[in-house]
Amino acid sequence: MASARKLGAQNSKTRDALIKATTQVMIDEGYAAVTTRRVAAEAGVNPALVYYYFATMDELFLEVFRRGAEANLERQRQSLSAERPLHALWEVSTGPFGAKLLMEFMALANHRKDIRVEIARYIERFREIQQAAFTFLLRAQGVNVDDMPPVLLSIMLGSFASILVNEQTLGIELGHAELTAFVERLIAGLEPPTPNSERT
Amino acid sequence: MASARKLGAQNSKTRDALIKATTQVMIDEGYAAVTTRRVAAEAGVNPALVYYYFATMDELFLEVFRRGAEANLERQRQSLSAERPLHALWEVSTGPFGAKLLMEFMALANHRKDIRVEIARYIERFREIQQAAFTFLLRAQGVNVDDMPPVLLSIMLGSFASILVNEQTLGIELGHAELTAFVERLIAGLEPPTPNSERT
DNA sequence: GTCTATACTTCGATAGAC
DNA sequence: GTCTATCGAAGTATAGAC
Question: What mean pLDDT is predicted for residues A15-35?
Fold first, then answer.
């Protein structure tokens, strides 16, 4: 494992396909379904190529996580510069990578230390950025930060998105309508539509 | 798999040890670490005994889940008849089975249909019971159910407990103090200490 | 870069002695 | 009820031809 073997180019098309395929398998069937052969089949390439591009399966997992994390941070960045940042952010959080993949990685992290560290760093980074943005946002709305600290808003929204997405996978709906309504009321109060903003 | 082989008694001590060992391995290292040999070693019994007591590994997982679920429902029942039900319930929710094991099972459910159904049923049952109890509790406190529907309170507390416990595993603390304070304020408001209740 | 072939390990599951 | 022994399948990973 992890020998001095040379690896293929970072910008290879096949490498991209493997990362994409792994992501898909994780979302569809969970991390335990990710095997050399399964991923190669999904990507439509030869199984041996996995080891041409990645030293170990763990490296593949890490790369999938990094890609997803960066993509998510980028989506977050765009949300924060949108007309109504909180609304845009909520859309992103309830999307596919926002919660479903993250739960898979958290479960995976339970017995892979390298991955655990990477995930922890990402979540903290994600939350710090939101905290900074929310600080301005709430101040602009005249919200008292003792009633609603920015970091609290961040962790609450993240936790709500997570439970909604993951329970939806199980086919659970009980309480979801109420929670969604609550979130919409909350962010509408913190971020009323401006006169010249388009309707939703 | 799942042949007509006869299984050992349900009340066997060895069987209990296997269930307990599996639970522990899942909490410590995640469901992917659960193998015939690993579980047997943890329980201090011979690996072949796993198949004497369970038809398949999936059956073992299901039994672990059912045990944990029943134990949790029982703890919930006791909480609801405590002096301050919300406070007691919050304690239980942030305990070991409340969130950590549940996440493992949700991840496991991603590629095992039988388990998915069982988990969905359990969560709904759990939430329905809370909803019923909270309906009385909130009414007694004169809370308007339009502001705080009982099922919303249930799903919110569950989601908060989940994020706190699971992030704690990763060593994340950012926002946790604020969230904990928020929950304590929330449930203290809904459930003020009665004159003759002991101090906490 | 991509393929075939294969070494090595571990897993789930069973058979049968005790 | 518990043990040893083992089978077949599937996993990670590598070597080497093309």
Answer: 97
pLDDT at site B95: 85
Using alpha carbons, list the distances in angstroms from residue A74 to A67, A86, A121, A165, B186: 11, 15, 16, 20, 34
For strand D, which nucleotides have at least one atom less than 7 Å from a protein CB?
1-5, 10-16
**Per-position DSSP letters for B77-106, written without gaps between them:** HHHHTSSSHHHHHHHHHTSHIIIIIHHHHH
Is A196 part of any domain?
no
The span from the CA of B69 to the CA of B119, in Å, is: 9
Query: Could you tell me the residue range of the domain that residue B151 belongs to?
Result: 57-190
In a domain, B167, yes or no: yes
Report the amino acid identity of residue A90. Answer: W
The burial of A67, by beta-carbon neighbours within 10 Å (0-12 exposed, 13-18 middle, 19 or more buried), is given as middle
How far does the CA of residue B9 sit from the closest CA of chain A (Å)? Answer: 31
pTM: 0.95
Q: What is the mean pLDDT of residues A125-144?
A: 96
**Count of Cβ atoms closer than 10 Å to residue A48 Cβ:** 9
Average pLDDT on A182-186 reads 97
